Amino acid sequence: MKKPQHLDTDALIADPQTKVVVCCGSGGVGKTTTAAALALRAAEKHGRRTVVLTIDPAKRLAQSLGLAELDNTPRRVEKVVDGSLDAMMLDMKRTFDEVVLSHTTREQAEEIFANPFYQAMSGTFAGTQEYMAMEKLAQLRAEDRWDLIVVDTPPSRSALDFLDAPARLARFLDGRMLRLLTSSSRGGHSMFSLMTSSMSFFTRAINKVIGGRMLSDIATFAASLDSTFGGFRTRAEATFRALQDQQTAFLVVAAPEPDAIREAVYFTRRLTEERMPLAGLVLNRSHSVPASGLSAQRALGAAEGLEADGSVSSTADVLRIHARLVSQVATETRIAARYTAACPDVPQARVPAFAADVHDLEDLRAVAEALINR
Which of 64, 263, 278, 300 has the least C-beta neighbours within 10 A? Predict the structure, then answer.
């Protein structure tokens, strides 16, 4: 098997043609840390005005950047040296509200905000997070305040759901029931009034299952749907096309673990199918052996010999630790090779495992240095 091509992440984030970097991968592989470290280095070492957007609700990003909290508004990271870095966390409900406010009057917006169907949809409707991630990314791009936007996506395969957002939104907006509700509202008769005027078994069944009030809420919401969200599908599709542009770079983040590598292969293939510009794989938490010439078997044999001779036990302990590390590295190498076999043409960068979690800017700088020097 050929050795994978090296991924030069430093050149990637330094390139003025790179406007958006999207980090995706399964949960628990260091995706948030990778995004923050790249954003910090782009700001400090390359002088780029950078913002990092996390969609993962974890609090660790704010803590490592020295911020008390993150919200839907970009916050300046104060201790950045010779650069400009902002950070934010997606609030999908607030972003949804911003969409409404930007396309209606204040009075119309207040009416929509008070609608129970809107309240449920904006907070829990399937796919809302991905829709709003697309919208927020579009907003950040439109502001033109930053040279580089780094996006930290949700864990697991839902991280790529935003690729489906335009099509899923179109299906929702063009759904037969929703179009019926909208057209009936335009005609002066809500779907609710049409249905309740009938004493049919169907009407009674519908009212019994979901309630007349719910139908009324949906019909009222549908009446304002076109004016409020008519342009959202267009913007979502435009953002999708922007993600396919060469100014965007996708990084698949993984760890040398079976599930993470399997997910990384899935992400890679999906991005390739969607013709997204995949920059490469970042393999976090990789271990190495300082004394690579000493095998695990020889180290264990030497430890047993020392113990049999009654020698200092600490030396034997070190040898046993070395043997375990050699075995771990061998296992990680075999697991990582599965990705290389499945995706041989994808460049890779490896980040060593750190003794402790990342807690502050110094730790993030260390991660960035390790990332570019491997």
Answer: 300
- Looking at mean pLDDT, say which of 33-47, 48-62, 132-146, 220-234 comes out highest: 33-47
Res 7 pLDDT > 70: yes
- pLDDT over threshold 60, residue 126: no
pLDDT mean over 88-111: 82
* Fold topology of 1-103+132-163+246-292+346-374: Rossmann fold (3.40.50)
Give the global pTM.
Answer: 0.81
Cα torsion through 73, 79, 81, 83, rounded to 10? 10
Name which residue leads in pLDDT, 38 or 2.
38
Domain edges within the chain: 1-103+132-163+246-292+346-374, 164-243
CA–CA dist 303, 317 (Å, integer): 7
User: Which letter, b or e, does each residue of 33-42 get, where b requires 16 or more Cβ atoms within 10 Å of its Cβ?
Assistant: bbbbbbbbbb
The DSSP secondary structure of 265-303, one letter per residue, reads HHHHHHHHHTT--EEEEEEEEE---SSTTS-HHHHHHHH
Distance CA 70, CA 84 (A): 17
Cα R_g (the chain), whole angstroms: 26
148-152 and 49-54 strand pairing: parallel
pLDDT digits over 158-173, tens only?
656 667 765 666 565 5
What is the C-alpha to C-alpha distance for residues 148 and 48, in angstroms, rounded to an integer?
Answer: 7
CB 86 within 8 A of CB 147: no
* Cβ atoms within 10 Å of 301's Cβ, excluding its own: 13
Strands 148-152 and 348-352: unpaired
